[in-house]
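Team,

Forwarding the record for the chain on the shared tracking sheet. I've put the sequence and predicted structure together so nobody has to dig through attachments.
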Amino acid sequence: MKIRTFKIAKALACDGGQAMVETAMTLPLLALMLLGAFEFSRVAYAAIEVTNAARAAAQYGAMNGGGFLDTSGMLAAANADAGNLSGLSWVSGYPTVACSCSGTGTASCPSGKSPSGCTSSQLLVTVDVQLQYRISSVLKVPGFPTSYTVYGAASQGVLQ
């Protein structure tokens, strides 16, 4: 019995540093995974904020029937809604306005003016807003991008 006990104690004494070696080898991988999850959550949060800001800009443009011509006010509404983000910009320069006449099909509506052949009671105007935001990466890993661009879009009908 004493010999067997001695062999077990000797075997346990030899394995004493194994847990420390395994921890030392897996800790950098765990830290990298945690930083990756942090980076992913930052990009997801920015995408949600940009989409909400686009909705706020479209709602501002749809107010009072003619707010869609006030692009600086729409962008200000978007920046006010996305308080944690700065540097929102239009995707295509300006929001687009689509007009149609109820019952007669789609008509063109240049620069927010009424299409020909429509009365004001038939005019249906929709404000489409597309915003973008560039977020820089916290992780600088070779082979991965150093910044990400997130997009947000919203569409809102204008009450006539």
